[in-house]
Amino acid sequence: MIEVQNRRIRIIEAGVVRGKTRGSLPARVREIYDGVRDVITTLQPQTMAIEQLYSHYERPKTAIIMGHARGVLCLAAEQAGMPIHHYSATQIKKLLTGSGRAPKNQVQLSVQRELSLPEIPEPPDVADALAVALCHYYLASMPTQVA
């Protein structure tokens, strides 16, 4: 979660919510839901930005699991009355690095630079989430262009 005051961006909270139960998809999904709901209740964000899933995964099972987790995020945000914004990985990468095909480490370095962090955020999932948040902020703050 980031906060912007006077065009200064700062991290409010950054971490990972994971299901810890092994072998039980319903239990893991519930743990993720409870964790995200707790974050929303505690920090009361105004909006949620998430990365869109893409269909060309090398591991289809991973894509399906990610779909479950993404659904839980959408449900928690919807129940809280929070708008949800979806961005593609290439859109996020292009906005932060100038290239939609930038490698993960280049995105991590961009997040570190944009947030003036002493180190790259770890684990990489945290850097990815912050990249999505930055993408949303930059796109939401750009004036709309009249055609």
TrEMBL record:
InterPro entries from the UniProt entry: RNaseH-like_sf (IPR012337), RNaseH_sf (IPR036397), X-over_junc_endoDNase_Mg_BS (IPR020563), X-over_junc_endoDNase_RuvC (IPR002176)
Pfam (any one): RuvC
Biological process, per Gene Ontology: DNA recombination; DNA repair
EC number from the UniProt entry: 3.1.21.10
Active-site residue numbers: E51, D125
Binding site residues for Mg(2+) 1: D125
One annotated GO molecular function: DNA binding
Entry keyword annotation includes RNA-binding: no
Main subcellular location: cytoplasm
Cofactor(s), by name: Mg(2+)
UniProt GO cellular component terms: cytoplasm; Holliday junction resolvase complex
Catalysed reaction, written as an equation: Endonucleolytic cleavage at a junction such as a reciprocal single-stranded crossover between two homologous DNA duplexes (Holliday junction)
Positions that bind Mg(2+) 2: E51
Cofactor binding notes: Binds 2 Mg(2+) ion per subunit.
The keyword Nuclease is assigned to this record: yes
Subcellular location, record wording: Cytoplasm
Swiss-Prot/TrEMBL keywords: Cytoplasm, DNA damage, DNA recombination, DNA repair, DNA-binding, Endonuclease, Hydrolase, Magnesium, Metal-binding, Nuclease
Classification via HAMAP family: RuvC (MF_00034)
Quaternary assembly: Homodimer which binds Holliday junction (HJ) DNA. The HJ becomes 2-fold symmetrical on binding to RuvC with unstacked arms; it has a different conformation from HJ DNA in complex with RuvA. In the full resolvosome a probable DNA-RuvA(4)-RuvB(12)-RuvC(2) complex forms which resolves the HJ.
Physiological role: The RuvA-RuvB-RuvC complex processes Holliday junction (HJ) DNA during genetic recombination and DNA repair. Endonuclease that resolves HJ intermediates. Cleaves cruciform DNA by making single-stranded nicks across the HJ at symmetrical positions within the homologous arms, yielding a 5'-phosphate and a 3'-hydroxyl group; requires a central core of homology in the junction. The consensus cleavage sequence is 5'-(A/T)TT(C/G)-3'. Cleavage occurs on the 3'-side of the TT dinucleotide at the point of strand exchange.
UniProt family annotation: Belongs to the RuvC family.
Name of the featured protein: Crossover junction endodeoxyribonuclease RuvC
Gene name in the database record: ruvC
